[in-house]
Design brief:
By secondary structure, this protein is mostly helical. The chain has a domain of 205 residues. This is Ceramide synthase 5 isoform X2. Keywords: DNA-binding, Endoplasmic reticulum, Homeobox, Lipid biosynthesis, Lipid metabolism, Membrane, Nucleus, Transferase, Transmembrane, Transmembrane helix. One of its GO terms (molecular function) is DNA binding. It is a multi-pass membrane protein.
Length: 363
């Protein structure tokens, strides 16, 4: 079972911890209104398309004797119905925030007393005949379980824009964790875990602030996250981790077949770090210029595809204007996209703020 889903839905974590926190910061526990049942539209939605074009809308309008505008609204509300409510996303982020914070504290507390934390050359002395302590074993098993949970959840959650990059990242993480454990490279593996866990709590905290509509706090936390991510992934990772895996290990134990694979995976990981850092800088600069965080392209922007959504709605609405007149244009053109985004709560993107427009009824 996917760990984050299990934790966020369990009575202990959601009912007694995450949910009360969400309610306290103003996130409503309101069930999403289900769309009016219609077998014909449901069949089109499930089997054909979630974004019907103008021609299909007119055909459905004649078949059902509904206005084009009403059918547009039905599809919009039906899409919103499949999205998780804000309360669920807050609980999910709170669970991940708790995990990242706890595992980082555990790792740094354990590693602080280890000589190879201060001198990375100690990672390779007497290799591969290095004892595996109980603390290090628990650290590895917990991290591997969490990476597997992220891998499975990718195919269950709403599809993200960087799905492929995250999939590669999770595969590399699982392979590196398993490979380093089998080859007893657990010392340098523990350093990699600790370094990667440092920035993630700030991202999850920024998401929670976003869901709670704490805009300034969200911006502050996201900027802190961006700075922490760039420093740890683009500076410390190559100077501390890659230096010891590429050069110090070569000097002390020399290259061997698995050495090449291990370092190749780490270099691929570094390329992903550079790509994500670029996207984070873009998002942070836009946030500072506009005074709000629009989206985080690193990992958690829901890819219901904004471009596709906006284009489709504009095309649909231009077609509906001929059938429904100026009232439909005034009622749906300005608010259709925003209404859909706000159908599941106060914020749909994980880091996505918009002003609430005056939305007209679709009835």
């Amino acid at each position: 079972m996917e760990l984050s889903k299990a934790a966020s839905q369990s009575p202990g974590s959601q009912e007694f911890i995450a949910k009360p926190c969400a309610l306290r910061v103003g996130i409503e526990d309101s069930a999403l209104n289900k769309v009016e049942p219609n077998d014909t539209l449901e069949k089109v939605f499930v089997s054909v398309t979630k974004y019907p074009d103008e021609k299909r809308l007119k055909g459905l309008s004649k078949q059902l004797d509904w206005s084009v505008r009403k059918i547009q609204c039905w599809f919009r509300h039906r899409r919103n119905q499949d999205k998780p409510p804000t309360l669920t996303k807050f609980c999910e982020s709170m669970w991940r925030f708790t995990y990242y914070s706890c595992i980082f504290c555990y790792g740094i507390r354990f590693l602080w007393s280890m000589p190879w934390f201060w001198d990375t050359r100690q990672c390779w002395y007497n290799y591969p005949y290095q004892p595996l302590s109980r603390e290090l074993y628990y650290y590895y098993v917990t991290q591997l379980a969490f990476y597997w949970s992220l891998m499975f959840s990718q195919f269950i959650d709403v599809k993200r824009k960087d799905f492929l990059m995250m999939f590669i990242h999770h595969v590399i993480g699982i392979v590196l964790t398993t490979f380093s454990y089998v080859n007893n490279m657990v010392r340098v593996g523990a350093l990699i875990f600790c370094l990667h866990d440092f920035a993630d709590p700030f991202l999850e905290a920024a998401k929670m602030a976003n869901y709670a509509r704490r805009e300034r706090l969200c911006i502050t936390l996201f900027v802190i996250f961006g700075a922490a991510f760039i420093v740890t992934r683009l500076a410390i990772f190559p100077l501390w981790i890659l230096n010891t895996t590429l050069f110090e290990s070569w000097e002390i134990i020399g290259p061997y077949p698995s050495w090449w694979l291990f370092n190749a995976l780490l270099l691929i990981l570094q390329v992903l770090h550079a790509i994500w850092s670029y996207l984070i800088v873009q998002t942070a600069s836009k946030a500072l210029n506009r005074g709000k965080v629009s989206k985080d392209d690193r990992s958690d922007v829901e890819s219901s595809s904004e471009e596709e959504d906006e284009t489709t709605h504009k095309n649909n609405l231009s077609g509906s204007s001929s059938s429904n007149g100026a009232n439909c244009m005034n009622g749906c053109m300005g608010g259709s996209r925003l209404a859909e985004e706000q159908g599941t709560g106060k914020a749909t993107g994980n880091l996505h703020f918009r002003a609430s427009p005056h939305l007209h009824s679709c009835d």
